[in-house]
Design goal:
alpha/beta; about 575 residues; Guanine nucleotide-binding protein-like 1; GNL1-like; Rossmann fold
């Protein structure tokens, strides 16, 4: 046999040059967005701003990154400056600083891209050119009207915005989902005005993951939105009520891990409230009896292992440019469009409504690439839209904590740890010792202290792996193990009022928690097994509502009926019979 050719050594630098040549050959050069004056887009050390992900390939080629999330790219100088700030001592932030009004981050001029007018006479190519031109002009308008340093990181992928446009056009009711920990910074008023005033459609706001916040705070946020947006309908939801969790107690430091049990089952309490809101909006135009019967049957089964109600079939919608024009309740079918920013739990909410896994979920932002429709019943369908980061002035650390910016894309996570540590006592929660035996703490010290406790060591130099420690802390905050909640304006001043509010019983019913199980109403609350040695960050059983597993069991709380707390958890269903 002929002797094989000897392999020539190939350096990493040569590999980078090879990949660069390949990208240029295929026309996939990096394209700057909102380039600052005097910046060179190809020089990373310059003041330019680049997209993290490259552009799709030439026309006619496959586009694997067609729906990839795209954000600004920070310069090396900005990264270095933030690292220096992370080494400075922490400054405790006053509790009132956690009270947030959404108007601070969403200005009237900071609008989101809306689909330009179109008709069926346009060809696919003409429509594509028209939308691309519109989106380019939109970005130029943003550049001219705002300083890029003041803007948050928002979605720069036109394909993802196209998914939103189609969902808005097909939906009879728009369901906007927010995380109860950060509702004001996730809700864009421009979308509310567009849906209610221009599209003339009903708008429902879902306060999701209410199991991660105390009941008084949930009630306060509910009334904040009711007063600020009169046309808004609200409902509360959690795909992980109390009976779906194994163990529900807090450890000494306050850092808590929750474990869930079994497979995905229907969250009947939140589903019931969503049904009641939709039924009040639809009236007799669509018969929602099958949806009502499905919830009732599920609750009457007392969450047994097997379901007896058929849930319908799932239909994935193809990504065709031309589709039907909007017709309200077409064919007697109610279409509910689920919209929200990444990691608010849209897909998990749909799974909890269906009572089984029908949509893939993940903690990684941008997991849902294109919209898809799922039939809840024969005449009710849900439309899941990819997570969208709307233009705003939300600071980057807050975007990372609420899941809008991918933690894996962070080049410098220490400033986000600093933001969190100045508002929570992370030293006590993590139960760490100072890695350098000092009395003054910085964000970098916390990362090193956690890395020392967990045994995160760099491979070559055997030093404490600060980056991995920071990454671990941020992922625990995203999962709810470290629960950081913002508060509505004047919450601290009216705290006693919210702790005795009449809506608390309904909130606890949806949470499936009694007053005793809820424990102290402190804001930085989460639930866990109290184990002093934290389990692995990648443990699937420790995830929140963005996991592939969900459970069910028996509820321990009931809704308020006729002015009194009823012991029958099915009382709300009986009222509809």
């Amino acid at each position: 046999m002929p002797q094989g050719r000897r392999k020539t050594p190939f350096s990493g630098k040569a590999k980078k040059e090879q990949l660069k040549t390949k990208r240029e050959k295929h026309g996939r050069k990096k394209v700057p967005f909102l380039q600052k004056p005097g910046g060179d887009s190809e020089d990373e050390s310059g003041p330019s701003v680049q997209r993290i992900n490259h552009q799709p390939g030439k026309s006619g080629r496959s586009k694997p990154n067609k729906y990839a999330l795209q954000f600004f790219r920070e310069t090396n100088e900005e990264i270095k400056e933030k690292k220096e700030l992370a080494r400075q001592s922490l400054k405790v932030i006053d509790e009132k600083e956690l009270e947030i009004d959404g108007d601070l981050f969403f200005e009237n001029k900071l609008d989101f891209p809306k689909r330009p007018h179109w008709n069926f006479d346009l060809s696919k190519e003409q429509l594509d050119i028209q939308e691309n031109k519109y989106f380019t002009d939109y970005l130029k308008t943003i550049e001219a009207g705002f300083d890029t340093k003041d803007l948050s990181y928002f979605e720069l992928n036109l394909e993802t915005w196209r998914q939103l446009w189609r969902v808005l056009e097909m939906s009879d009711i728009v369901l906007f989902i927010v995380d109860i920990r950060f509702p004001a910074v996730m809700f864009p008023p421009s979308l509310y005005q567009y849906v209610t005033e221009e599209l003339k459609k009903d708008f429902i706001l879902v306060l999701n993951k209410i199991d991660l916040a105390p009941a008084p705070l949930v009630a306060a946020w509910k009334h904040y939105f009711q007063q600020k947006y009169p046309l808004l309908k609200l409902c509360m939801f959690t795909s992980l009520p109390g009976y779906n969790l194994i163990g529900q107690r807090t450890d000494k430091g306050g850092l808590q891990v929750r474990r869930r049990k079994g497979r995905i089952r229907m969250a009947a309490e939140g589903n019931q409230q969503l049904y009641e809101v939709c039924n009040s909006l639809v009236g007799d135009k669509v018969d929602l009896t099958s949806w009502h019967n499905k919830i009732k049957a599920k609750m009457e089964e007392d969450y047994q292992e097997e379901e007896k109600v058929e849930v319908g079939k799932m239909l994935h919608v193809q990504n065709n440019t031309e589709f039907f024009q909007y017709e309200r309740f077409k064919g007697g079918v109610l279409t509910i469009g689920c919209i929200g920013q990444p990691n608010v739990g849209k897909s998990s909410l749909m799974n909890a409504i269906m009572g089984k896994k029908v949509v893939s979920v993940s903690k990684t932002p941008g997991h849902t690439k294109h919209f898809q429709t799922i039939f809840l019943t024969n005449n009710v369908r849900l439309c899941d839209c990819p997570g969208l980061v709307f233009p705003s002035k939300v600071p980057k650390p807050l975007q990372v904590l609420m899941g809008s910016f991918p933690i894996a894309q962070l080049r410098e996570p220490y400033s986000t740890v600093k933001y969190l540590a100045e508002r929570l006592d992370l030293v006590k929660m993590l139960r760490i010792d100072h890695p350098y035996n000092d009395e003054v703490w910085s964000a970098m010290d916390i990362c090193d202290g956690w890395a020392k406790k967990r045994g995160y060591i760099t491979a070559k130099a055997a030093r404490l792996d600060s980056y991995r420690g920071a990454n671990s802390v941020l992922r625990m905050a995203l999962d709810g193990k470290i629960c950081f909640c913002l508060r509505p304006p004047h919450y601290a001043r009216r705290k006693d009022f919210w702790q005795t509010h009449q809506d608390l019983e309904m909130v606890r019913w949806i949470q499936a928690l009694t007053v005793e199980e809820e424990g102290d109403d402190h804001l930085n609350r989460s639930v866990g097994d109290g184990n002093s040695d934290m389990s692995s960050d990648n443990d699937d059983h420790n995830r929140h509502a963005t996991d592939d597993e969900d459970t069910s069991g028996s509820s321990s709380s009931a809704p308020e009926v006729a002015g009194a707390l009823s012991s029958n958890k099915y009382a709300t269903l009986e009222l509809d019979d």
